[in-house]
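Ticket #4471: complex job returned nothing on first submit. Input attached below:
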Amino acid sequence: MPEFLALDTATAIDYVRKIPGLFPPDADLACTEIGDGNINFVFIVKDNKTGRSAVIKQSLPYLRSSGKDRLLTVDRARIENEALQLEYEMCPDLVPAIYHTDLNNALTVMEDISDHLNLRKGLIQRRKYPNFARHIGLFLARTLFLTSDLALDGKAKKALLSRFINPEMCEITEKLVFTVPYYDAVTTKYTPGAAAAGAALRENDALKFEAARLKDGFLTRAQALLHGDLHTGSIFVTETSTKVIDPEFAYFGPMGFDIGAVIGNLVLNYAAQAYHSPTPAEREDYRRYLLTTIEEVWRTFETEFSRLWDEQTVEVTAQAPGYKEYYIRSVLQDACGYGGCKAIRRIGRAQVEDFKAIPDEAARAAAEVYALALGEAMVLRREGISRIEDLTEMVKGIPEPAL
Amino acid sequence: MPEFLALDTATAIDYVRKIPGLFPPDADLACTEIGDGNINFVFIVKDNKTGRSAVIKQSLPYLRSSGKDRLLTVDRARIENEALQLEYEMCPDLVPAIYHTDLNNALTVMEDISDHLNLRKGLIQRRKYPNFARHIGLFLARTLFLTSDLALDGKAKKALLSRFINPEMCEITEKLVFTVPYYDAVTTKYTPGAAAAGAALRENDALKFEAARLKDGFLTRAQALLHGDLHTGSIFVTETSTKVIDPEFAYFGPMGFDIGAVIGNLVLNYAAQAYHSPTPAEREDYRRYLLTTIEEVWRTFETEFSRLWDEQTVEVTAQAPGYKEYYIRSVLQDACGYGGCKAIRRIGRAQVEDFKAIPDEAARAAAEVYALALGEAMVLRREGISRIEDLTEMVKGIPEPAL
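Support reply: We reran it on our side without changes. The output follows.
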């Protein structure tokens, strides 16, 4: 096995020069490293003559913060690369194109999407994206339907599944999403004013019961190939374009987990916006936009999934009367429950910027308490949901804590 | 890859002579072939001097009936071998010991259990086995609990799962158990008097809906390593001993599928016994024994599974109050549903001997109609079951068709 080549901004330029056809021989290349995580490098290489650019994402076998001794596997680089390729085949407009793959060095060279803004940042700035909901709804419907037993025969599905057994990344989700918030008083860390609400999770038997059921679904239900980490930070947007990146958590799990990641993160922003600055009218306008977006994500998913079901299902038993409607409703209930888990998990230790962006500590604490209440309702009341409006009405019906 | 050596009774003797320590050098070996299937050989080799014997099971890469040209993979031999080894580790008294493994030739040499009777034959003869229910209940509890996410951490479970992706054998189950009885009028073949009841399955929307849900569970729920084909023909018994063989269908699926296979096949015998020969008193005594056996299988499973849960669960979220009881009840409902599917599937084309043993055609047809009604009730009414007595009472409450 050749030695692992960890790139830096200089060797990254040398590296891309050797990829045939990517840049002209006389390109004037510049490179910057933009990775914000601890286990990956992300380089942008740009030709100052033509303006053409590319991104290199490299997974490291150690933590950047702790030197070279702590070893991780880089199988996640293969999984991310293969998932990206598959997603690109299913949704070419919604995923960066891959230019070059080098699994020996755990790296993928791909389309530069830095003209897009991270959706989480866009939401914090209260920007509206008229195409996002439709795009992500289509992404969800196509990737989830086309990798399920509905669209693949048993052998093809099992062959695909065997390429996406992802123990290391799944372990992170299993622990941080489903266990830590309910059992781990040490590693959870709420804004002081929200600590009591955080501690109450660990005493809430009904919530712990439902979290156990949802974790069991995450552990055991190989329903479709998931992105696995589809929060608003993995989605990049412009007014007209949407790109999904970073599927290193890809594995076969319950469809509702991906849909719930999108909905849960929109709900988090909805909670945080209740305490964001400008006028009440502006705030409420944006929060209405967020709920409308949730509804449009689901409706697009449902319409496209249903169309694919009618046109492309290979599973004979799926034609049983009423089964499609039952199946889609179950996915909605799962999405509601997993969305609630994702919301709860992002309050506390793994706090998202939506809340960090609230400067006033009391307001931030109130937003956290509110988000926990929304997440809890989504988990506990999911089985009463049969249309997306049931979910958005439920969210609207839970008042934000007064300051 | 060395050439595949298909054994015959002569080369089988040569083969076992070369296994160190299995037989003495001067053994007087005789061999018979006892396989009744089309894709495997089963040889018994016996030393006439010492009485010591061994079984060779060899999987063929072609169908015995159609010569050497129709190729199958023999990965099922690896899966069967590895599943047997694992089951032996968990339940050493309940599985034949393995003496020798040769995956290049798709064969396993193991303990000869021919002093045991096939349980299906024993049931047809109305024999009672005082230890069978307890033994199989323990086998189910241990193999299912110890290979689940309850007992294994995420990485260990996924590593095990990746060894038991079994597309070829699963495809057989997916098709014959969950699809053919409800959609395939050509390959189903009932005794003429039961043909109308068989055809009615294909018009029964509620049943097709539930069969679709249960098939989805079989396709997607990687809950534990299953035996995968645990009907009464895969179980061998004496008064004091029980041995489970033939796990070539092993894969990660819903626990209720294995438990349902046992219960469903006991229900099949219960239906057939209603039309078997001797006095009504003898018949009814035996049928009561069968229902008591179903109850004891489940109670043993439940007690042992619950004990393992209390003592060996590594999954933190499983401690949520009420979750264990909920989980076990869900397994019971799954077992009831899968048992119903297994019963329905064994009427018609894949008819079991329990029914073939009824010589009178009208009686056989009545038994088939009865078994279909029992299977249908188990599928449709499973979610109302919360104790095993609910299941046996339901079975008792469905009258056998008069002749």
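The beta strands of chain A are 29-33, 40-47, 53-59, 98-102, 107-111, 117-118, 224-226, 235-237, 242-244, 251-253. Closing as resolved unless it happens again.
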